[in-house]
Amino acid sequence: FEAQKLRIYEDGARKGSVFIHGLEELIVHNKNEVYSILEKGSMRRQTAATILNAHSSRSHTVFSITVNMKENNIHGEDILKTGRLYLVDLAGSENIGRSGAVDRRAREAGTINQSLLTLGRVIFALVEKTKHIPYRESKLTRLLQDSLGGRTKTVIIATISPSAYSIEETLSTLDYAQRAKHIKNRPEVNQLNKKGLIKEYTETIEKLKKDLIATRDKNGIYISDDSFGNMQNTMAS
């Protein structure tokens, strides 16, 4: 697992969905392999000590599991069903002054708080049914776009501290949860028949070809004719 900058793009094949360039998807065959990857991911999570928390999370964590199933319909046609489970652990909102965070830790807390603020605005906009939902203002909300007002089933678990010293964070968390209760999703089964799957692959290939041509023609970027031809042949095969 090497650290790298990940970029989020809109998925043209699925409205409201995104894909992450540079993200590696690992194939697993049993639950033990799933647990192993989850453990490796958890070990990479950034934590640090602050006045308020000895093991304060310095980032959000997203663990995604995709399950593909193939079955036949009543007409004997192959149907591909896809299910995806997102396990999301949000870093808590933090009062920078009371936590004693400075320099890098203060910047981390500011970034976390900003993404949570955007999440709050998205939740508010969905509840109020406004025309514009600010998903794109944060990478977190772009990733969770389909889980917030989309085609999925979503469960939000709010954790709070019993300490009166944390009353500010507790009220903020409860406000999030109360508002989120009023969001209405429209769960759908994600399935494609063979014809639909071929159509999706064809559209993806055409999009890649256009992106390749645009990249080749862009000023300052050069791909040799041989390399360009090999890439086109690979996509056409």
UniProtKB/TrEMBL annotation:
Give every Kinesin motor domain span: 1-183
Q: Do you know which SUPFAM superfamilies this protein is assigned to? A: P-loop containing nucleoside triphosphate hydrolases (SSF52540)
Arranged from A to Z, the UniProt key words for this protein are: ATP-binding, Cytoplasm, Cytoskeleton, Microtubule, Motor protein, Nucleotide-binding
> MF terms per GO, please?
ATP binding; microtubule binding; plus-end-directed microtubule motor activity
Q: What would be one Pfam family of this protein?
A: Kinesin
Q: Does the keyword Lipoprotein apply?
A: no
Please give the coiled-coil regions recorded for this protein: none
List the InterPro entries.
KIF11-like, Kinesin_motor_CS, Kinesin_motor_dom, Kinesin_motor_dom_sf, P-loop_NTPase
Task: Report the subcellular localization.
Answer: Cytoplasm, Cytoskeleton
Q: Which domain of life is it from?
A: Eukaryota
One GO cellular component term of this record is: nucleus
One GO process term, biological-process aspect: mitotic spindle assembly
Its family remark reads: Belongs to the TRAFAC class myosin-kinesin ATPase superfamily. Kinesin family.
Name of this chain's protein:
Kinesin-like protein KIF11 (Trinotate prediction)
